TrEMBL record:
GO terms for molecular function: oxidoreductase activity, acting on paired donors, with incorporation or reduction of molecular oxygen. InterPro entries: Diverse_substr_monoxygenases (IPR051260), Lucif-like_OxRdtase_Rv2161c (IPR019921), Luciferase-like_dom (IPR011251), Luciferase-like_sf (IPR036661). Pfam families: Bac_luciferase. The lineage of its organism: Bacteria, Bacillati, Actinomycetota, Actinomycetes, Mycobacteriales. This is LLM class F420-dependent oxidoreductase. Residues 17-258 form the Luciferase-like domain. Coiled coil: none annotated.
Length: 318
């Protein structure tokens, strides 16, 4: 299983200097990929709690620097690592502009981009860009349709309720087809009674970006069940499932002492975090994204990177 690292975007990061250090350090340490996430704004009185929980929005979310700008810096600072988003909220973007930006980044990086997309959850963010929660799935599907059109050969003609392209060149094109992965479902997808997320990933995407929330054998079993459902449906759609990837997200929070048996995945001591890395591999993940942006006790990006390198070294040695 490969390891990827989410780049620092949070409050307190020195964007002018830290990003280049982070990208180069991660590549030198053997990380296979670098990732960014999207958070558009930080409402003082949000419409809903954070990310489907009952918790308030965490302080570190006051800043999430623009994900595609961050990846452009990383593209120039590195040579080999892949560059991914986990995830961009489709409804926050104009589809043609997003397709063009991703294609440009893919050209700059020499074909290293992975586009991770999702529907989003924050009403405050959706309203800021003129969308609603009811638009989320429709706008994501439309964005995928636009990608297919404008990343194909010119001239491009396309029509949807929001987008009209009439016999036009849309350049630059990606180096090759950019892999598009979709988030959604997490550990619960294996138990889900709805097939909407499964159907969209299976029929439209090159893979799945679940957040691992349950540790140990139950968490591995749930992820495997969700991934099996996706691949089964993809096979029924006539797709080559061998070319699809499951890239798991691990949102790390360290504790001073071992977390109890009811802990969430990637919450605990370093030894417990490494157990969760092994669980992701057991679940069949092709790659694991290590996200240290949530960690409040890091005093500097350099300290964060020391921990990231230790995680990578311990994973390589296991």
């Amino acid at each position: 299983m490969r390891l990827g690292l989410r780049l620092p975007q949070r409050l307190g990061v020195d964007l002018r200097h830290d990003l280049v250090e982070a990208a180069r350090t991660a590549e030198a340490a053997g990380y296979a990929s670098l990732w960014t996430y999207e958070r558009l704004l930080f409402p003082r009185t949000p419409v809903e709690p954070y990310a489907g929980s009952n918790e308030p929005w965490p302080e570190h979310s006051r800043q999430a620097a623009d994900p595609l700008t961050i990846l452009t810096v990383a593209a120039v600072a590195t040579e080999k690592v892949r560059l991914g988003t986990s995830v961009l909220v489709a409804a926050l973007h104009t589809p043609v502009q997003l397709a063009k930006t991703l294609a440009t980044l893919d050209r700059i990086s020499g074909g290293r981009v992975i586009a991770g997309l999702g529907t989003g959850w924050a009403t405050d963010e959706l309203r800021a860009t003129g969308a609603t929660r009811a638009d989320r799935g429709r706008f994501l599907d439309e964005t995928l349709d636009v990608f297919d059109a404008v990343w194909g050969s010119d001239p491009v003609s396309f029509r949807s309720p929001r987008v009209v392209i009439d016999d036009a060149a849309v350049l630059p094109k990606p180096v090759s087809k950019i892999p598009v992965l979709l988030g959604g479902g997490g550990n619960n997808l294996g138990r889900s009674t709805t097939s909407k997320a499964v159907q969209r990933i299976a029929s439209r995407a090159d893979g799945w970006l679940p957040v691992m929330t349950t540790p140990g054998p139950p968490g591995a079993a749930d992820l495997r069940a969700g991934w099996d459902r996706i691949r089964q449906r993809a096979s029924e759609c006539g797709r080559d499932t061998a070319r699809m990837q499951m890239i798991v997200v691990g949102n790390v929070t360290f504790t001073d002492r071992p977390a109890g048996p009811d802990r969430a995945a990637f919450v605990g001591t370093l030894d417990q975090i490494m157990d969760d890395v092994a669980t992701a591999a057991e679940a069949g993940a092709d790659e694991l994204i290590v996200d240290l942006n949530l960690q409040d006790w890091f005093t500097s990006t350099h300290q964060m990177l020391e921990t990231a390198v230790e995680i990578r070294d311990r994973a390589a040695a296991s």
